[in-house]
Amino acid sequence: DGAFGYPLRFPGELYSVDSIPSSYVAHDVLVSQGSMGFLLTVAAVLEFCTGAVLVEVAKGESDREAGDYGLDPLNFLKGKSEDDVNRMKLRELKNGRLAMLAFSGVVTQAVLTQGPFPYV
User: Fold this and answer.
1) CA-closest candidate to residue 106, choices 93, 116, 96, 97
2) Contact (Cβ atoms closer than 8 angstroms) between residue 107 and residue 23
3) Using one digit for the tens of pLDDT, what is the confidence trace for 44-89?
4) Which residues, other chains included, contact 116 with Cβ-Cβ below 8 Å and sequence gap of 6+?
5) How many other β-carbons are positioned within 10 Å of the β-carbon of residue 20?
6) Which side of the chain, N or C, has fewer Cβ within a 10 Å radius?
7) What would the DSSP string read from start to end of 44-83?
8) Rounded to 5, what percent of the chain is helix, strand, coil?
9) In whole angstroms, what is the distance from residue 120 CA to residue 116 CA?
10) Do 22 and 115 meet the contact criterion of CB atoms below 8 Å apart?
11) 77-120 pLDDT tens trace
12) In the structure, how many helices (H) and strands (E) does the chain have?
């Protein structure tokens, strides 16, 4: 229900433990309420707005790599060699993959136990 002893939930009765008792039922509750529809709409708009770059890359008008949005607000890559930049990009990719595996483990455990977190 949270991390480090703090509850991590949106405010309001809809997002309370009584309304969403486990992560297993959270999807169905939020779909019926409309929150997931809003999330899907936001993701679709973002994909649509950034899709123009795909056309530019396909035409050869841009040399941008896939997934590289040029976002480095803290200048982690400033002054780094190309090998260092590639190593940091690979670390970020592996970190994202590990996070997806961890989340799939949480979902699997929620389905198997049908109980609240920490599923023991």
Assistant:
1) 116
2) yes
3) 998 898 888 878 888 888 887 777 777 788 888 889 999 998 998 8
4) 1, 17, 21, 22
5) 20
6) C
7) HHHHHHHTHHHHHHHHTS--PPTT-----TT-SSTT--HH
8) 60, 5, 40
9) 8
10) yes
11) 889 999 998 998 899 999 999 999 998 888 888 888 876 666 65
12) 4, 2
Q: Write down the pTM of the prediction.
A: 0.60
Distance (Å, rounded) from C-alpha 109 to C-alpha 120?
A: 9
**CA–CA separation, 67 vs 44, rounded Å?**
16
- Count Cβ atoms within 10 A of the Cβ of residue 26 and give its class: 0-12 exposed, 13-18 middle, 19 or more buried: middle
